[in-house]
Amino acid sequence: MNDILHPRPNPIVAAMYTLRDLDADVVLIHGPAGCGFMPSRRLEEAGVRVMTTGMEENDLIFGAEEKLIRILKHIDSHYAPNLIGVVGTCSSMIIGENLDGAVKKTDLQAKVICVDIHGCSGPNTSGAIRTLEVAAQGGIISQEEADRQIAILKRATLIEREKGLTSREYLEPHTGATKLSAAMRIVNTLKNGGKVTVAINAKKETAYGFADLIKAVDYAQSKLGGSTEYIGNLALDVGLPRIRRYAQDIHNDLSACGINNIKITGGLDEYPVLGDICSQSLEASNADLRIIAGLPHIIPNLKKDDILVTDQPREIRNYIDRGFEYSIGEINTHAAVMGATKIIPSELGNTIREIVDGGLL
What we know:
The protein is 47% helix and 14% strand. By secondary structure, the protein is an alpha/beta fold.
């Protein structure tokens, strides 16, 4: 197997995000103060307290169990959380820290689950999988739900190896085609009486950003004519409660705009396994122009003139190199949607609206 040279998501961070999805009140990173610093800031924007034991050099020699116990007791008494997730790091796992053993010595009021993971554990999904396993063991979720999500995550890992971030030795980031070029295609298709189909196959909270394309295209159609169809993995009855809340928020926002005719493909956590059903729905729509947003590479039978929209610059490089000229980067999506409770305006969506309102046709 070829070496993969570009940076990729980390199992530690995946564990932290999965604890967020489990509605953990506090995520305690047992490691150096700077471990997971940037994603920690984003998680705090989503309402999760992220804390660290701040391991130092002496802790690597003598261990940091006493520090972990002390900090857990402090968190329990000062913040009264219902659920604490303790996440291992390279430092604590390599020296063999016993996370569960430390928790047993604390006698906390809060429920605590420990995820013994580190950065060398494999693909990022290994961190999410381990978190789901211990959540099921601790009675946070059912074993059936854990098994469902683990199967989805394994599928996601396979897809990335086949045609995603780990499919090539090095993927140089690319910002994609201009928003104006894609927006002009969309508005001209509608103006000429054509049909535009928007398909969302988004990963969890990123749907808050990608769903704006449905709002923008619907707005353009109301002003210009033509016809539209909308497809999305926005099921309300699939996934953990937090993920269902995301879908409900988006439905509420779309409904307030009079958009209720979305063809549902599945849930927001099912994006890796919805490629075929999304492809079939796109084909059945008989659209003159198709927009696929979120993680388009999961969907088979894409057309070279499709507009592909993602927040991942390395995936955009993949799309551009494979001949998808209209690959669009919404690079700030993941940062923008943290803590969102309604759809966030996208750059492409705003460009569509500006063209329509500004009379640039």
